Amino acid sequence: MRRTTTVLAAVLVLGALLLPNTLVALEPNRFARIPAEAVIAAVLLLCLPRAARRVAAALFGLGLGVLTVLNLLDMGFTEYLGRGFNVVLDWGLLDDAQAYVADSMGGAAAAWAAVGAVVLVVLVLVVMALAAVRLGELLAAHRERAARGALTAATVWMTCVALGVQTFGVPVATRSASGALEAQAHRVADTLRDEAAFAKEAKADRFGATPGAQLVPDLRGKDMVFTFIESYGRSAIEDPVTAPGVGRTLDAGTKALAAKGFRAKSGWLTSATYGGSSWLGHSTFLSGLWVDNQQRYRTVTAGDHLTLTKAFRETGEWDTVGVMPGVQKAWPEAEWHGLDKVYDAFDLGYRGPKFSWSTMPDQYALEAFQRLEHGRKRDRPLMAEVILTSSHQPWAPLPRMVGWDEVGDGSVYDGIEASGVEASDIIADSTRSKEEYGKSVAYSVTSLTQWLERYGTDDTVLVFLGDHQPLARVSGDGASRDVPVSVVAKDPKVLDAIDDWNWTEGLKPAEDAPVWRMSSFRDRFLTAYGSTPHPTGE
């Protein structure tokens, strides 16, 4: 029993020292190496008296436990958001993750997941500390042999470094644990430096002092609709599993809109986020600033930097509204967005079922927008920001199109939701997730294009885009952060104004269509439609 306990302790400690921080690197060859930290720790523990040795071993074990938790968080964040965990900024996202699980799989599942996560963290810390103490006592009990072993291991480690020895394609000698801690430290330092630098950057605005009369004069009288489609990324158009269905939908939408007199041009934008944190993509697109973390988001939304949507309100010529079916709590950012009125999940009159995270189908949200705002007689045109949520992961169950006259209060979706695929059936299956993701994007695009066919006027201008790519399980490891963007209008002058953008005709951007950073769109759009720059903060 004692021997088994010792072996388990050694496996735990060595495993923690060699554990990578990405799932793609989690392969057996990663554990067939000699960690420098183990050799150094053994030497130090051999030099200490009993009481100090136990304390040092326990602290070493706790440190390994913390490192293990951070590596696991890095794995999760890389898988879902395409980046590692930031110990300064990302703790609040854990609450969002729990809310996502609750919305997708129910409150009980979220509660158990939270409890399980806390218990797991405590177990990792305690067990790792006990394992390190156990190994420290073993070293002390066999001091002479342990000293020879440590010396031999150190010699082998240095020889392997000098000769570049590898096994199974990876170096035998490694210092991955200390390297991971060093990377976390650099991440913290970079974050703190970035906070001050971005605050200064956000004060500079090419159009910050532009009078309202000189903002978007070439769009006067147009009903502007800016629409974000959740997780609508390049993968939806180019991945072999999703592309056929989404491509057919975009081609059909282009043809149907053309029959109604609409033309479209499309390109690519590189989003500031990936896999989630949609608000970072929204704020990047609207502000013209690169908002790729939570601190930047807090900084920019706390200031008065001009947003694309607020530019229309500043003219005094438009009513400005937001349709936000994903917002289910207080949303003070409405003022920063420049929205006079916001319709959240509780303001749209929906009486049907939720579809996993999405509070209501996109078709319903658009029909409610038509009923409440776009279809009303008004004294001046409308500028609307609309967020469509049906393509939010986990993409099960999914709504489907119904007759627009059948939408009603949403009760028509009861049977559709009940007969849909369960999230638990696809969440761990990459191929099925891709299939359902493709269906969800096709549904969202169809809802939007049919809404425009049905309700669009000669003065309706639609700009729609994805906020980010789907998570890596669907978009693939190393996928780009590009998302499609389209401008649709009947008035030929609207599209003539962006001829020099060299975008693709239709709703589907060509593979080689121009790719811009998402933060560049605001200034390009304002310039294209006649706005005069009056900089601030320069």
From TrEMBL:
The chain crosses the membrane at residues 30-48, 55-73, 109-133, 145-165. Keywords: Membrane, Transmembrane, Transmembrane helix. This is CDP-alcohol phosphatidyltransferase. It comes from Streptomyces parvulus.
